[in-house]
Amino acid sequence: MTHLRIVYALAAMLAFVTLNTPALASEQHKAKLLEGLQETPVVITGATGSFILDIGKNDTSFDFELTYEGIEGGTVTQAHIHVGQPNVAGGIVIFLCTNLTPPVGVPLPPRCPTPSGTVTGTRTAADVLAQAAQGVSAGEFSAVLTAIRERATYANVHSATAPLGEIRGQIK
């Protein structure tokens, strides 16, 4: 009988530890729909997209997938993550892809497919651009993660005829 009590006690302790330990899996955030109606100012376009990112368990990187189709504004020029709440244009903090020359010091992101496609990759502190007015220093990955977790970031895709962005979606 004592042996059975020990087994029950160990099982209870294991259940307690399991329920109170953070998940070992990554943390996922997404912008389910990128569209012109979310841009600032609004862009009337039939283009759509989606964005998913998985923050690694050590908070030093995230993997992402950006998919878009039907960009009407000609060539896709670039796609980014910006710090900004809905209906507000914010500063670029991370390049996802570009067909332009990125700023000095930014690791070269992949080319953006045009007018439709999927871009995947991993981003780290080396990819973070400074946005001092918004409290983000170059390389400050933790500030970007805080903004993502607080739903204060968005992904968008820029085109030749919509240089401020053709489609956008808030990351939740």
State the helical fraction.
Answer: 10-25%
Tertiary shape: globular
Number of discrete domains = 1
**Largest sheet geometry:** 4 strands, antiparallel
List the helices and strands and how they pair.
Elements: H1 2-19, E1 27-35, E2 48-55, E3 61-69, E4 76-83, E5 92-98, E6 117-124, H2 141-149, E7 153-159, E8 167-170
Antiparallel strand pairs: 1-2, 2-3, 3-6, 4-5, 4-7, 7-8
Protein model, in words:
It is a single chain. This protein has one domain (25-170). The chain is 16% helix and 35% strand. β7 and β8 form a beta hairpin. Mean pLDDT is 88; it is low at 3-23. The protein has helices at residues 2-19, 141-149; strands at residues 27-35, 48-55, 61-69, 76-83, 92-98, 117-124, 153-159, 167-170. The longest helix is centred in the N-terminal third of the chain and has 18 residues, at 2-19. The chain has a four-stranded antiparallel beta sheet, with helices on one face. The protein has two helices and eight strands; from the N terminus they run αββββββαββ. With 172 residues, the chain is of the alpha+beta class. The N and C termini lie far apart (52 Å).
Give a summary of the structure in a few sentences:
The chain has one domain. 16% of the residues lie in helices and 35% in strands. The chain has two helices and eight strands.
Question: Which key features would you list for this structure?
Answer:
172 residues; alpha+beta; 4-stranded antiparallel beta sheet; 2 helices; 16% helix; 35% strand; disordered N terminus
